[in-house]
Amino acid sequence: MTTKNQYFDKAPLQEKLFNKLLGKAFIFSPTDELWKAKRKACAHAFYKDRLTLMMETLRDQIKLAFVSWDEQIEKSADGSTVIDIFVEFERIFSRNIITIAFGEDVSEEQIEATIESPVGSGIYEPKMMSVRELLHSNTEDIAKYAILKVINPINIFLRWTG
Length: 162
Known about the structure:
Layout: H1 12-22, H2 33-42, H3 48-75, H4 85-102, E1 110-116, E2 124-130, H5 131-150, H6 158-161
Antiparallel strand pairs: 1-2
Helix pairs in contact: 1-5, 3-4, 4-5
């Protein structure tokens, strides 16, 4: 599979199912010249040295989280604190992704984003938010809408209707 992957195409049904969510990403695309060009363009991210750097960045983000937790414990009167692990892991991983993507942790930088307010209203307004909050918001939107697109009953007919 690693040396002859050009002979193993992805199933066209999966490409149709995930097209709305992922667009023309090479993950489900057939192995053609366009796929080869896209794969080559992102291949640098999968070299051993690059993956090592990603793991070191993750380790550094985890160490920062531990320092923060220690500070919270020391500040408390009884030497304990409540830590929401879900929120903390989201912060660790979003900072990791942001640091890898931008070369530094800009997760708390404030930017103006256009978001739906209130959610589900169809009304979009500008709002100042951190890069981390925006990444979290986008991830939630992708997860929320992806399941609706994947389980949509009309997808049953995609094979015949396109």
